[in-house]
Amino acid sequence: MSSGPDAGAGADSDVGSTPATEPVTEPAQITESVPAGETVPVAEPVPVAEPVPVTEPVEVRSRTGSVPAPDAALRDGPVPVGVPVASHVPVVDHVPVTEPVGVRSRPVTPSPARESRLRALAARFRASPHQSNPGDRSLGRTRTRLDEILGVLPRPAQTEPPEELGSWTRDGVDGVELRWSTGFGASTSAWLLRPAGETGVLPGALALHDHGGFTRVGREKLADGPDGVPATSTVTREELQAFRDRYYGGRAVASDLARDGFAVLVHDVFGWGSRRIPDEAVAERFHRTVDLQLAGRRAASVQRGEEATAVSPGQRSELLAAANEPQLAKELGVLGTSLAGLVLRDDLIALDQLAAAPGVRSGAVACFGLSGGGARAVLLAAMDDRIRAAGVVAMMSTFDGVLDGHADQHSWSFLSPGLSRVGDWPELASLRPRLPLLVQYAERDELFEPAGMREAHAILTERYRVGAEHSAYTGTFHDEPHSWSAPMQAELRAWLAATLA
Q1: Is the separation of the CB atoms in 395 and 55 below 8 Å?
Q2: Domains of the chain, first to last
Q3: How far apart are CA 350 and CA 217, in angstroms?
Q4: 48-63 confidence digits (pLDDT tens)
Q5: How far apart are the C-alpha atoms of 467 and 461, rounded to whole Å?
């Protein structure tokens, strides 16, 4: 999804707000949906917001490499896009929840004129012949289409063993630091975690980090390292812990799950941590843009009679990454791929690594994530049969719900061009209607409209009812902002243990 919270959450609140990019304006008018003789007023320029943690699409079936045949219970094809949804579906009220990823401090409400024109355009598009055929029940065809829309590049046909860089035991967890090549760019760094002293075969899980507007780290958001809360050359322990406090209830989610009896792999994906684009590789004009943005903020503080808050190099680096993301999305589009497609490819390769790791039970691998990590979990579970359970946290809504003033809060990794031509988010999440799925909704989520979340829940409930006699879908609602609270985490861990027992 991800996609935002303040860059380097827990630091200066200015970081992660509106980036210095050129404003985008709406078309002057859409004549088809306007009464004769009237015109639609030109919308005010809408600033392009800094990508918020989000969702990043997760996984898509690669064009190369084989995947083991699923058990009969998970072999059914997808429920087609277009299945009618129930007019009312009961909602399960639950414990509060919190989530990572990025949240803008000031929600944006579009003007009625702008919103009506967008809805008119969406209605025309959905009725067009380019939309996916609702009667197409072929899971393989849907996966191929999603692969093409996102531009998922082929991954290696054979999984090369990762390089082991070291190991540790701390706080009830055995950890191994791994590194592998994806075939381009910097190598992926990852941690494989297990219960301390456990040598038997365990269920596996891919822990997928959020976007969060916090790109200097990836796996460190979710797991402790050999020294506890990790620190890097650009991120202090205090900064990372502040981010965890805000979005993860202060917990190291992957480490907690490992202590519960899972083999957990947590890895960086393209754009984050070890796979991040270095600041020096970003075009000089974006450096100037960020410097001007920061100068403007200082000047505004002086005008208000306030003391200008110093911006750390790390915060500046996050602003730079946010300013560069639209340019990166353009360049990847020219190359026939997308940010979501590259992230998905990295996740598929990580799944290959986890499936090949010793001590991981075949047929018992799950994935989960908050915000952008949740979007990655949706795609990975939909596109690869080796995933046998998926947890999605603070990342589920219809696309219409995102149009209600929230599109600027999400990144290119969540709102990938053409994705809705394959299906809406709840439709993508229900392509395998026998797959155990837990979605945790944050009712005070700043990134999604309550109506969009409730509609997504209704769609998932109905489509899972069509696909199985006993629904494998569980949706719980929590009185939380965009975050993943400790009680929510406990709920997911218990659900995973029961599902993969």
Answers
A1: yes
A2: 31-41+52-63+73-100+111-129+140-499 (3.40.50.1820)
A3: 17
A4: 444 444 344 333 333 3
A5: 10
